[in-house]
Write a structure and sequence with these properties.
- Strand 3 (45-48) and strand 4 form a beta hairpin.
- This protein has 150 residues and is α+β, with helices and mostly antiparallel strands.
- It has a four-stranded mixed β-sheet with strand order 1-4-3-2, covered by helices on one side. A four-stranded mixed β-sheet has the order 5-8-7-6, with no helix packed on it. Strands 9-10 form a two-stranded antiparallel ribbon.
- It has helices at 17-28, 37-42, 74-84, and strands spanning 9-14, 31-32, 45-48, 51-57, 66-70, 92-93, 100-105, 111-116, 121-122, 128-129.
């Protein structure tokens, strides 16, 4: 059986591209992915951490479930939410790990869980791994010979 290597993107429904882009950039530090005129006209694509958020425009978005984002600096994130006036659920501390958790909603009601897991990560050889935001990390790119030339 072939195994999944990563979640490449999630898709959310939105009603206003500009508002959504601005909110995700300000609140979560997302990066707009300029994929050229054809893709840009079809959907908004944002990089957030090592994954992507793609959007479907609809006049009446129907949010479903939630997605979760790992936060490196919990106190800085809460301070940013407070400074921007973004409402969030009362944060909880998880008894099993001491990790933090809260929920926010984007302008169209898409529910986002913010979490911080202080347990740490290890690679397959048992070496500790740190996850931090890297603006130069992996991103998807069209290979020559695939898709339109624009």
């Amino acid at each position: 059986m072939s195994r999944v290597t990563m979640i490449q993107h999630i898709n959310i429904q939105i009603s206003n591209r500009e508002r959504t882009r601005e909110w995700y950039e300000k609140v979560l530090g997302a990066e707009f992915l300029d994929r050229g005129p054809e893709l840009n006209s079809r959907q908004l694509q944002l990089r957030i951490g090592s994954g992507e958020i793609h959007t479907t425009h609809t006049p009446n978005p129907a949010p479903s479930g939630h997605f979760a984002l790992e936060i490196h600096d919990w106190d800085a994130m809460i301070a940013n939410l407070d400074a921007l006036g973004v409402r969030y659920a009362p944060p909880t501390i998880r008894a099993y790990s001491g990790g933090h958790s809260t929920y926010i909603q984007d302008p169209d009601g898409n529910r986002i869980e913010l979490v911080q897991h202080p347990l740490g990560l290890k690679d397959s050889q048992g070496t500790k791994v740190e996850l931090v935001h890297d603006p130069h990390s992996l991103t998807w790119a069209r290979l020559p010979g695939y898709g339109p030339t624009t």
